[in-house]
Amino acid sequence: MRSLKLLLALFLVTCFKTVAGAQDTTQMAKIYFVRSTGYEGSLLVFHCFVDSTLMCVLNNDQYSTHFVMPGDHQLNVTAHSKSLSNQNKALSISVAAGQSYYIKIFPVKGYDNKVKIMSVAETTIRPVLAKCELKTNCIQ
Amino acid sequence: MKRILIISCLMLSFTVHAFCQRAAVESAFDKYHINRIAIDSLTQHNELRFNFDLITTIVTESSQKIYKAHHDASKTGEEAWALQSVNNGNPSGSDRSTFKKQHDQHIPALKPDTSTFKLVKDDGKELVVSFQYDQTSMIDDNKFMKDCLVKLFFDATTGKLLRSEGSITNSFKIKMFKANYLASTVIYQYNEVIERYLPLKEEVSINLNILGSAVDMITTNEYSNYQQP
């Protein structure tokens, strides 16, 4: 009987956590990092950062989604570095709760493997997302 | 004889269906007190009646160009435009020529084909209406827009247009290039003085086939400091 109670309590806590978690995201903004093009053979992975924190590593034709708090954020994508030394090339965006923001990654082909990023409209990203795969196990 | 009758019935049902759709859209416009004249004049470049600043950004994989310009409505033709900078530097002769070509084209405004009006959504908060352009209003340079599906998004509580979206999902030809798809978004602001909508931000994305490779080209126009001359 005692173990049954314990099991029930655990079940309730899990349910509460799930519901609480779901409520949290509605108060947050959703950021998409989308990489539809890149280097041949997917040899090079791109590292996506929000406020200097590594959020995802993307290959060709992949995208990732991340919930962030409303307000100002610095976004960055690098071809090589797994950490950021400065925010010189960051994209500053101001996000609102319940809204989605689409960040398109443009690899600039050349010796220095520069990457530029741009916040684009949903209409722009819709056909691109259709041919990309959502990466859920992000930091790999 | 039977076949002719069936075809006639089908054509009649399509006509009746299109008429009902248009009637539903017009009824929704009335219900939310939407300024129909302002909607009909969306493509007529009402912004050219104002002075304003324009930032145009053209991005492809290999390049990015940012044009900063000012429009002076008291002047006419190419005199009305002053290109101030390109990528924060002085514009070259080639930049000026490209900019001039982009803003000196006299392409007639596209007209909505009212027989294609459809009510997409009406939930009391948001009204969404779709249509296609009237092909008789097109010239060779914009003939590819015949396949463009346009959606207008209204705030049902205010009756104001918030944005429009356009999309061509089939491949098409634009001048000498073959394109796989086109997508656009325009965000509007209602001007109470002239009772017309003015664009705040436009974004057009085209996926082009260049030398066998698909290349994305994104063009954004950001309008600010609207002032009457």
UniProtKB/TrEMBL annotation, chain A:
Cleaved signal peptide residues: 1-22
Protein name, entry field: DUF2846 domain-containing protein
Keyword terms, alphabetized: Signal
Lineage: Bacteria, Pseudomonadati, Bacteroidota, Chitinophagia, Chitinophagales
Organism domain of life: Bacteria
Automatic annotation (TrEMBL), chain B:
Leader sequence segment: 1-18
Keywords: Signal
Region (Disordered): 84-104
Ranges of compositional bias, category Polar residues: 84-96
Top-rank lineage group of the source organism: Bacteria
Protein name listed in UniProt: Uncharacterized protein
Organism: Pinibacter aurantiacus
